[in-house]
Batch of 2 targets.
Target 1
Amino acid sequence: MEHTRRLSAEPAGIAEAARLLRAGRNIAFPTETVYGLGAVATDAAAVAGIYAAKGRPSFNPLIVHLAHLDQAREIAQLPEAAERLADVFWPGPLTLVVPLREDAGIASGVTSGLPSIAIRLPSHPLAHRLLTEVAAPVAAPSANPSGQISPTTADHVLGGLDGRIAGVLDGGPCTVGLESTILDMTDAPCLLRAGGIPVEAIEAALGGALAPAPTRAPTAPIAPGQLSSHYAPRAEVRLNADQLAPGETRLGFGAGPEPWTLSANGDLREAAANLFACLHAMDAAGVTAIAVSPIPNTGIGLAINDRLHRAAAPRS
Ligand code: TXA
Ligand code: MG
């Protein structure tokens, strides 16, 4: 066990978080999507520390977070379509998988030895300040034990990783509330994970439809976000529930007198921002069976339904 420090969103707290990262420690920090668990991406031992703290299977590559577009061009090759998307959506909740520059010095634990790398520029001002002070690429998966619900507050991070990491920079709740959209840009652009930027907006920026995602055997996932059971609360989860079964507690969307709701007035962005916090809070309240109201599958609703399907999947 190590003592996990809560660092304040003040210049001294940011400077200490940057110092600890540069010293090879693992620090959780807020992004606009969820809290990430950071390590300097060129430091193989620090990257290994992420896997150890999360209990993450070692076949899963990590997203590298950058302060500036120039850093992206230094560690990766950005195809023309990637440059266009970066221009429109960065900084923001979009991750691009692009060819890695072999001489960039990125630890192989970041890419799982793949010839590609996942990169993004977060828009959270605190993340941007931290990345600027670290002045190095920072690998960061969501700051939760592998398979559990992603954290959208510093308290969520401490609830899962207290004693396993050096610290958490406390920036309050995340505004988007679920992870970035991931696109594979190494060939015709295709969606790897629905997330904070709606597919419709990406297709509008590209001027055409995304290619169908490659199908993979369910026994050989390349990513935790692609494992069938993920983002899992302790409670059982049932989706598209019109009626409540005995023993169930409703997680509502739209009108209704529920004690738990993703958005009382049916706003998908508000529902995304509340999703993981609701699942954390329902677990903490001892709810054992959750019945989720139907949620439209458009815009960020696609990402909400993706996370809910994984939360509802049979546990291994
Ligand atoms: O919003 C987010 O994306 C958050 C915050 C912290 O930035 N991060 C996050 O990271 O969700 P993580 O580790 O939970 O998801 C990383 C995903 C992997 O599951 C995998 O699908 C994909 O990124 N990925 C990373 N590198 C890849 C690569 N070279 N090829 C294909 N997919 C890759
Ligand atoms: Mg995750």
Target 2
Amino acid sequence: MKIIYSDKHVKHNPPFEIYDGVYEAYAEKPERIMSIFNFLKEKRAKDIYPPDNFPINHILDIHHKEYVSFLKNRSAKLSSKEILYPSYFIRDTYTPVTPKTYEAATSSVDVALTGAKYVLKGEGLVYSLCRPPGHHAENKTMGGYCYFNNAAIAANYLSKHGKVAILDIDFHHGNGTQQIFYDRNDVLYISIHADPKFKFPYSSGFEDEKGRGEGLGYNKNYPLPLGTTDEEYLEILKKTLKDIKDFSPKFLIVSAGFDTYEKDPIGGFKLTIPFYKVIGRQINSLELPTLVIQEGGYAVDALGEIAYSFLQGLSK
Ligand code: OKP
Ligand code: ZN
């Protein structure tokens, strides 16, 4: 197993997000990934690798050209302390552009693509420590702390070599990944998340969103009530594994958010730390080459332990 990490994410560090007009501390902070990285450095230092630099065309395969240049040029134009809460190419007030946002977002994509590269080379399990996260980024929209859709870009890259299933276990629905693959039948998107009637992103993640055209049947949402426990979650997880088996993909990507944890400050499920090992073991039973992409998870002090528990279950 390999772990991919770059410290470039640190420079993307917005001071606040705006919720109902109120300025709050930014939950998607560098300490999240530092917590995981420091924990894994203790346990598995020899498995940690830096990312390669991939050409921009991988991002352009997924994101609209004008969207990518907007992010690049606006990041570059900002003075060192300036922050932009954009008025277009954006779905909410959680996703500001800072001087280093473009650099951090492209580096996060490199971390994901490097993981995909190792999977292609025959590595059975790779964990890409992406930050900023990606699953809310649509082809031309940033949102929910996400700028480029790391998992979608990696999935598209792998899809040139065989069918890809994406299992999204972040607490929030991955509206971006869903939108990007909604018309495709070579990439299956399955998500288990909080019912969007109550939680972000509100506008998608419902059960009746099943894909369109050729993609019909290749998008599956499992919205769950707030307060979902380990046991209840396991039952649904097993259903998603059956969906994945029926699809018989060549590769599996897991959009791994740890905001399903019982003490997550913005989540609302009740999953316990040892249960992430169970999730890992279940996913491992698929026996597929697996790329884990980091998404959310905001209980900073617990993230290292959660990630390690998950990896223990996933390790062959
Ligand atoms: C990103 B990912 C808290 C509101 C938070 C934004 C949620 C973004 C989640 N004041 N709303 O899926 O973990
Ligand atoms: Zn989330």
